[in-house]
Write a structure and sequence with these properties.
The protein is mostly helical and 333 residues long. It folds into two domains: 41-148, Cytochrome c-like domain (Cytochrome Bc1 Complex, Chain D, domain 2), CATH 1.10.760.10; 175-201 and 221-327, Four Helix Bundle (Hemerythrin (Met), subunit A) (Up-down Bundle). Helices cover 50% and strands 1% of the residues. The chain has helices at residues 9-37, 49-62, 64-67, 81-88, 93-103, 114-127, 141-144, 175-191, 226-240, 262-283, 287-308, 323-327, and strands spanning 40-41, 147-148. Helix 2 (49-62) packs across helix 6 (114-127), helix 8 (175-191) packs antiparallel against helix 9 and helix 9 (226-240) packs antiparallel against helix 10 (262-283). It starts with 8 loop residues before the first helix and ends in a 6-residue tail after the last helix.
């Protein structure tokens, strides 16, 4: 049997050194991959200077006329400082990119590409003082959704009311009037998205052959675009829902609304959450996304109605002509 050749010390050292280099390179690659894929904040450097420069050029031609040359705000809100960051700090960076991509510029929505939208966000971040890095901000949602705003970047002023904002006015109407004036029309406008694409321009309402006279519903319907109507409807639901908790508001039968009931509060908070979700779906400018959200909106309405409004007989729906239906409203069941 032949003798096994001996490996020299120099050769063994080279082998060990090569393994160490490969292992170190692999560790650096894995760490870099984890950094790229893991959650980050805008303070970690999520864009490049070159990308921000591209965004600045786009901003001058597409955005400055409304938001100001220095992003300070003009016809449209500012895109820097606390007033801007406080609006977006609870959402991932993908929400801001999507907002720009789908709804800006206001007079030519959808003209910006995903890459241009990401470049604009890079310009906004650089102007706001956040650091650049060697990696560009990606335009795809899967990547940008993992980038957030750091906690405490601005003071949360959402719950702090000034002396003027703290004034409370007694309600003028009752709960039924609030529902019919705000919740009913705006909910139904959103439900209509199930069968009508807001992005398709509807023909003006025809008055020929009408025998019912002037239509208050059709009047002014063409002033705002279809998607803007959906945006406004969702905002109306979200921002009007806290009125359901107004002390002293009464139901149609004169009974005080149970604004301190745990269920009443829970249903109100559910409506706010669903309305906000619907607004985000509307911002995507996708009919399917809003149609899907209408299921949650319907459930939010139904849950509260079953507990505080509807009186149902076995096997049938509520009878609006039955006096006991209104008499028992605002009583949890």
């Amino acid at each position: 049997m032949s003798a096994r050749p001996q490996t020299s010390g120099f050769r063994r050292g080279c082998q060990l050194l090569g393994r160490a280099v490969i292992t170190g390179a692999l560790a650096v690659w894995v760490a870099g991959l984890a950094h790229a894929q893991g959650p980050r904040t805008v303070r970690d450097g999520v864009f490049t200077d070159a990308q921000a420069a591209r965004g600045q050029a786009i901003y001058r031609t597409q955005c400055a006329s409304c938001h100001g040359n220095a992003l300070e705000g003009a016809q449209a809100p500012p895109l820097v400082a606390d007033v801007f960051i406080s609006h977006w700090q609870r959402q991932p960076l993908s929400a801001l990119i999507s907002k720009i991509r789908n709804t800006m510029p206001a007079d030519a929505q959808g003209v910006l590409t995903p890459q241009q939208s990401a470049d604009l966000v890079a310009h906004i971040l650089k102007t706001s003082g956040f650091p650049a890095s060697g990696t560009e901000l990606a335009s795809d949602e899967a990547t940008s959704s993992r980038i957030t705003w750091p906690q405490g970047v601005v003071a949360d002023k959402g719950g702090a009311a000034s002396a003027g904002q703290g004034r409370v006015f007694p309600p003028l109407g009752n709960m039924a009037q609030l529902m019919r004036g705000v919740f009913f029309p705006n909910s139904n406008l959103i439900f209509t998205v199930q069968t009508h694409d807001p992005g398709v321009k509807a023909p003006p309402p025809s008055t020929t052959g009408q025998t019912g006279g002037f239509s208050w519903v059709d009047w002014g319907a063409g002033i705002y675009g279809g998607w803007e109507l959906v945006d406004n409807a969702a905002i109306a639901l979200a921002d009007a829902s806290p009125l359901m908790l107004t002390p002293g508001i009464r139901c149609e039968n004169g009974r005080l609304a149970p604004v301190t009931d745990a269920d009443w509060i829970r249903f109100t908070e559910e409506m706010i959450a669903v309305a906000r979700k619907t607004y985000q779906a509307s911002q995507s400018r996708k009919q399917e996304a809003v149609s899907e959200a209408t299921g949650d909106l319907s459930d939010a309405c139904t849950n509260c109605h079953r507990a505080y409004r509807d009186i149902r007989g076995r096997g049938r729906g509520p009878d609006p002509t039955d006096p006991s239906n209104k008499a028992a409203r605002c009583m949890s069941r």
